[in-house]
Amino acid sequence: MVGHNNQLEFNIPQLQNLIKRDPASYHEEFMSQFTHFLNTLEAFQLYPEQHNKTLDDLVMFMAQVAHCYPKELKEFPQQLIEVLRTHNTVLDNNMRMAFCRALILLRNKNLLAPTDLLELFFQLLRCQDKALRSFLQNHIITDIKNLNAKHKNAKLNSTLQNFIFTMMKDSNRAAKMSIDIMIELYKKNIWNDAKTVNVIATGCFSKFAKVMVASMKFFLGKDPDEKNSDDSDSDNEVDPKEVIMANKVNKKTRKREKQLSKVKKLASKAYKKKSEAPVFNFSAIHLIHDPQGMAEKLFRQLETTTKRFEVKLITLDVISRLIGIHELFLFNYYSYIQRFMQPHQREVTRILQFAAQASHELVPPDVIEPVLKTMANNFITERNSSDVIAIGLNAVREICSRCPLAMTEDLMQDLAQYKTYRDRSVMMASRSLIQLFRTSRPELLHKKDRGRPTEAIEELDPLDYGKITAKDYLPGAEVLLENKSENIEINSESGSDDEEWIDVQHSDDGLEDEDGDDEDDGEEEEDDEEEEIEEEEEMEEEEGGEEKKSEVSGQVIPVAEAKKEGEEGGGSEDKSKEKNKKGKKQILKAKQKLEAKKLKRDQAQKVTLERLLTDEEFRRIDMANAKKQVFSSKKGLKRKLEETLVSAPSELVKLSDIENIYKKRKHDKQTRIESVKKGQVDREKFGYKDGRMNENCSTTNREKRKNKNFGMIRHKVKRKQNKSYKDKQISLRNHLLKLKKFK
């Protein structure tokens, strides 16, 4: 037994195993090792820069068995913390890593408070040891995540956030690591409150470039169009049915069974991930307390910075998002960004994107109007290429969709002339701009560009700066007072498909909806009656003018002489009468429109206030509003539904919307094959066509000879070649007689 105890003093892993099984029996052996540890630690503190393998083993041994002897090792965590605080930058890298691992082990056993350890680790981030810093960062994130797993510990989170805020003012490495930790915790939905966001916002004004760039990139977020690298593509996913079938057919082995179980787990995990409800969070830029002050500080910092152009672009992007989302006023920003609007400028499409993002309805039109003129002068000119002109028109469209009052009538009509440009990309960009103003400010367009006005356009209210149109009713709700069969076609077979709202058949002439035939016929009859009344009045005037009696002599005067006499006196009176008639008709029509509009508004208000609407009724209202975009109040079909619907501008401008150039796209091989097969549908079969009435009847010997092997018909070919002149003459005569017989 004595020899066994002597061996345990040198075999620490075996002693550790025995102590975990029976701590009381090996208390003496532990105390001897603990005394050895204290002596070694005192010796190590004299030369902390040297690596001590014995101390490394003893520290890990004490951390492993600390829960077995809590009284004896009560001061052990504090001893390690004191060594790291005193000699944190001087310690050997391996020894520092060993002490940190031991402290993490104690923390996992709840023998150490989280605040003490996390504060120590944040201080250790100053060390020039990259491996240690990444190790500590992972532990800090994991530990805070575990602390908030069941419920959020508000007091602890507040303490740690305050400490991280102080660490951001520290050295470059500690500040960068602190920002990275807070950003990672926000992305993991652990610290996703406004306090965390505003702490990160202070990093945008840091004197360290890495901290500033990391903070601003956090507010830019991730492009939603980009696919996550973690999400596997559908092509690379394993189909569990194929693996199950292969497992049935192939030889049964343990490896195949393990593979099958693994595939089943992956399939169930993917199914759960797809079936989970999506999580919607406010983006970080919405949670900023003082967006106006932050935008002004960033712009002041941008004007005086000497950093690289990429850093300036990031700053411009953050400022533009702040202005657009929070509807801020920063007028100097627009004049600053105009200097970069040149076709040869690097990243010019992104600069145009920032200009569009920074425009909103509350910006005075006089401020954004110079931006539009700069774009028109520098991009939309004949000296530039077609791609440059198209990009300029797209950028103008994106700005005007957010601030339509910035466009002037002269500039709009000049840009609309590009609708007949020789290049397709420019033509389509100009037409998209015209389509935008058809539904927002049609008065800026020429009459030929406005198109026939639809019901929705006639109901538009004129736009004014700062005007808020708050409605106390649901637009289009008056349709619920009509019969379900009127103006609406509900496709009961398609269920609740939102895409198939209206059954509109597109044609060049335009078709009238079967429900709107009665209304249109009635309106056309009214128009015909008005035209007949006008023609009768003209006829009466002509009949009265053919024979005009003289007031003096009572004789009949010819028409020409009567006209001469009336030109001086009665001509001005007739013109004034005609003007008065036209004016009265216009006033009457305007009154009728106002009354009809008021009636619709009253009906919609009545429906909205007096009823609880169902999903089906909301669907009917949406369908009726979509129908208004297509149909005119007089002539039925206006234009195609997809051409009239203009989507509302989003908070952020997509770069693809500005760089969208209409060209023939190069398709991949699969797309080309599909288009070829689509063109072959209902086409006659390519190849030899015989004249038989019935394709399934038997073939002639001549047709069979074509499919035979040449060795089988060689003798016939040879016999044909050796024919004499007389035999050829006889065969030709027989052939001609045969043809004559069947004619």
Write the layout of secondary structure elements.
Layout (H helix, E strand, L loop, with lengths): L1 H9 L1 H10 L5 H20 L6 H12 L11 H11 L6 H16 L5 H11 L5 H18 L6 H14 L4 H16 L6 H9 L6 H12 L19 H10 L4 H22 L15 H14 L4 H18 L5 H7 L9 H10 L7 H14 L7 H17 L6 H8 L7 H17 L6 H4 L4 H4 L58 H30 L1 E2 L6 E2 L1 H11 L1 H40 L4 H16 E2 L3 E2 L3 H4 L10 H4 L10 H11 L21 H7 L2 H12 L3 H17 L2
Antiparallel strand pairs: 1-2, 3-4
Helix pairs in contact: 3-4, 4-6, 5-6, 7-8, 7-9, 8-10, 10-12, 12-16, 13-14, 15-16, 16-18, 18-20, 19-20, 20-22
Protein architecture, described:
With 743 residues, this protein is mostly helical. Among the domains are: 2-221, Leucine-rich Repeat Variant, CATH 1.25.10; 290-451, Leucine-rich Repeat Variant (Alpha Horseshoe); 475-529 and 594-638, no CATH class. The protein is 61% helix and 1% strand. A hairpin with a 6-residue loop joins strand 1 (548-549) and strand 2 (556-557). Helix 12 runs parallel beside helix 16, helix 13 packs antiparallel against helix 14 (254-275) and helix 16 runs parallel beside helix 18 (348-357). It is extended, with a radius of gyration of 43 Å. The termini are far apart.
Strand order of the largest sheet: 1-2
Q: Determine and state the CATH class of the domain at 2-221.
A: Mainly Alpha
What's the quaternary structure here? single chain
Mean pLDDT rating: 77
Please give the CATH architecture of the domain at 2-221.
Answer: Alpha Horseshoe
Largest sheet: 2 strands, antiparallel
Roughly what percent helix? 55-70%
Question: How big is the Rg?
Answer: 43 Å
Query: Roughly what fraction of the amino acids lie in strands?
Result: under 5%
